[in-house]
């Protein structure tokens, strides 16, 4: 018996027509998926700093740069690495130490910038990876590689792979939800394409659902004037009947997906308003996330929504915070960006921990690459910029099977090259899938005669950071 006939017979036995089909789609949505081993995390919250935050000014402390400040970057350090068109023609590449002080936080003694004091207070919950690296040198291919496993568009996103592999724990919300905030730094934001949370060649019900930052979180969420809930239910049932006839005739699995998505949209008319209603949050909780926690579309508000989504069984929650592409005015812009995210990041971790959810929630913070040790443009006394740098950058992880209070990997004295324990983008993704109970080598989808996977043909689980 194949899936099509099972669902048809099951629908007929539960109740006539579409009511049974809708119930069957609920069970299908809650699929336990393809867990290859016992998972350490049930869900992922990805805090993505779009534009490439400077590891030198935030997480990778390099005191020796002060001795070299203003001097030419040694050719032996740069090697044969290509530069972007923004700095390849510079007559000089002056070494630029961070303008910000670093200190050690927690019992772990993790070095972090003064710009992240709240995050630093959670240092004993974090695993800081300082040896990330990528081949991509520009934003779009770098973001695409990190989130789909390939620099060229068209592959499924990480969240889509997670939804495909594990299904959803929620009957009322999608398995994959996207939230976007704009940073306080006044600079043009690099584009964020919807394909970054797309399903690629996977069934389309695995794509991410982006909640809007103003107005209704989802377009057309409310019924138009004069349309009752009973009328909407009848409409959805009628559409499902028509789509079922088309599915029986065309044998196209995407029609099954369409039926399930209409049913999910109907349920979201109730679940999304409840999700975004913060009346039940305590004053202490709102204060912990900061003064912007009740302003829709801010990073603080999205972090609070992320916790609420996690509570409601959403499998993959993707936050994008824009404005980290600091080719110029880095000191002032970095202060603004960190002011946006420092308190909410710490509050999210603390909130999850207090609710007993951090152990089963994997939180990931970082961007698509790092920044150069040399200044882009003129190096001034209190101002500088940094170009893109993929050869090394830093990220932090917490919760969900991650060893807390550790730092992993090491870069040279210039934060230019990895010298110990390199972690490629594919290695990171393999590790995240592993923590979710999936073997990255076995989570595959056959498309155009080939078995594809998130990590392409590479990737190794970084076992030392797994608890």
Provide structural commentary.
It is built from 14 helices and 17 strands. With 467 residues, the chain is of the alpha/beta class. A hairpin with a 2-residue loop joins strand 16 and strand 17 (450-452). The protein is globular and about 75 Å long. Residues 1-5 and 11-32 have low confidence and may be disordered.
Task: From the structure above, extract its key features.
467 residues, alpha/beta, Alkaline Phosphatase, subunit A, nine-stranded mixed sheet, 14 helices, 34% helix, 17% strand, disordered N terminus
If you average the pLDDT, what whole number results?
A: 90
What's the CATH architecture name? 3-Layer(aba) Sandwich
User: What kind of sheet is the major sheet?
Assistant: 9 strands, mixed
What is the radius of gyration computed over CA atoms, rounded to a whole number of angstroms?
23 Å
How many helical elements? 14
Summarize the model shown.
The chain is of the alpha/beta class and 467 residues long. It has helices at 3-14, 18-29, 55-58, 65-68, 75-78, 117-120, 139-148, 158-166, 229-250, 253-276, 283-289, 299-311, 330-354, 425-435; strands spanning 43-50, 102-105, 110-113, 126-133, 176-182, 209-211, 316-322, 361-366, 370-375, 386-389, 393-398, 406-408, 410-411, 418-420, 423-424, 445-447, 450-452. Strands 1, 4, 5, 6, 7, 8, 11, 12 and 15 form a nine-stranded mixed beta sheet that branches. It has a two-stranded antiparallel sheet with strand order 2-3.
Q: How are the SSEs ordered, and which strands pair?
A:
Elements: H1 3-14, H2 18-29, E1 43-50, H3 55-58, H4 65-68, H5 75-78, E2 102-105, E3 110-113, H6 117-120, E4 126-133, H7 139-148, H8 158-166, E5 176-182, E6 209-211, H9 229-250, H10 253-276, H11 283-289, H12 299-311, E7 316-322, H13 330-354, E8 361-366, E9 370-375, E10 386-389, E11 393-398, E12 406-408, E13 410-411, E14 418-420, E15 423-424, H14 425-435, E16 445-447, E17 450-452
